[in-house]
Amino acid sequence: MKGSGSGALNTSRLEEEHRQGRAAGEAVFPISPRPCHRGPSSRRGWSGRFALALLVAGCSPAAVDGSPALLPDGGGGAPAAPPSPAACDASAADGVAVFASSVDTGAPQAPGAPPYAIDGCLLAYVAPREAGDASGALRLRDLGTGEELLLAPAAETPRRPALAGDVVVWEATDQGARVVRVRRGGQTQTIRGPFDHAGEPRVEGDAVVLTGWLTADESGDTDVFLYELGQAEAVQIASGPGQQRFPDISATHVAFADFSEDPDGRFDEDARDLADIVVYDRRTRRAVPRPREGKQSFPMLGAGERVVAYLEWAPFHPEPKYEQFDLRIGDITAPADGDALAASIEQSSRPYVLPEVRGELIEWVERPADGNASLRRRPADLSAPAAEVPGLSAFELFGPSASATITVVAARSPGGELELRGVAR
Q: Is the dihedral of CA 190, 191, 194, 197 positive or negative?
């Protein structure tokens, strides 16, 4: 595998940042601390003297242990049971400036994935790039206190963050190769495995799922790998001819897109593309295909243990694919031909970002060719029609990411900065 992600990575840059008072692991305060509501015994934000070297999802104070942002592989030692996530105000995310190169330069930073993720009181986001940088740095913010931690410098081109409790995963570039980083308990490591390079990570509690490229060819064979926290390396859970990609994970299942039936065996801008969703049971270690005519991809697990949602193009689909697609949802244990249509979605231009399926809601950005963009949501059980989330129609919208109580979406007014808006769920 290319790039081991050793603790020596970018040492000189981190030392320089440390001399400037901005080293990874130190707290910074770009906004005033906000309260993290905890019910009747609500307390105000913790003192800025506490660093976020050990940041957990309960908005708790961090121990000052001097941990750098990047430590040698194999680290661990996080509490086995972090506090339950606190309920933070949705407005705590308002005004956080983010970087999304598909808006800023016309080239997608990570197609289909927003450069931010939220869970509990924690927000991981790629900050705006600075002069001379191609990307922004990846930061982790406690929405209850306003404190931040630098997770990865801009030089690593961090992208596709995902959060579950106190575990953060993301894609990065290490010595020219794509890698997946995971941070837990104040330590960061690169996930190793029997692959050339890796990407497209998702996380759920105790495990990370990712796509592994078996060769250096970006269009080549890929398999799906599962990394359980604390293990030496990721293990292969899905293989076959062509590409298996875009996995998602829940406490009980993994779902991914299987392109083995595709004429060229890979995901690309090809109107002949074919794919099915496959569901892998983490307990039985059995993978079950869900065959359906046409192309299904980008599965999403998040609306309950027995529910899977995905994007569908059938029997014909436009190029680029993100401009128009159906969102379907169904029972994991039932045949795919019974899956219900949740929405027919139009995104007439970039940026293209996936819908969000979390808890009781499905959310997505609608961008018709002849109207304003809107954030729309619908109950995951489809018990009511889709409705527009008010207050966002005047903005250019990127895409949603959601916790149990907050949805964040990047929004920009004409000529303005790309900033997050928080919406209560």
A: negative
